[in-house]
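Collaborator request, handled under Task 6.
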Amino acid sequence: MAKIPRNFRLLEELEKGEKGIGDGSCSYGLEDGDDIMMSNWNGTIIGPGHTVHENRIYSLKIHCGTTYPDDPPTVQFVSRVNLPFVNQADGKVDPAKLNVLGKWARESSIETVLVSIRREMAAFNNRKLPQPPEGTMF
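Structure tokens returned to the collaborator:
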């Protein structure tokens, strides 16, 4: 099977992100519409219901390097959050602690990363973790 070039893949993801495919709990788009390399993205996750994250909106920065999608993007929370895979000093997501990044597959995408993070927010061990005040940033 032929490998889809990086820019074609990112254009596909951009189109999907702009259309808001999915249940609307996660969204993403380019940080700068003029970024021809499509490297820097913004992501948003709406906290899952029946958890300490309910009704909170979390902002993230996603960077797709030159080797994406062969290698995972780097992900960093802008909104302060307490989760075991998020560095509390700078908001960076540790790939070793989040399966979707640590066991990256070329078929994965920005959307699968955001959906996986949201799923982790609702996981039994994370759903009641004490959280920083709403609206605080890294």
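The cover message to the collaborator said: "Strands lie at 26-30, 40-46, 57-63, 74-77. DSSP finds three helices and four strands in the chain. Please let us know whether this matches your experimental observations."
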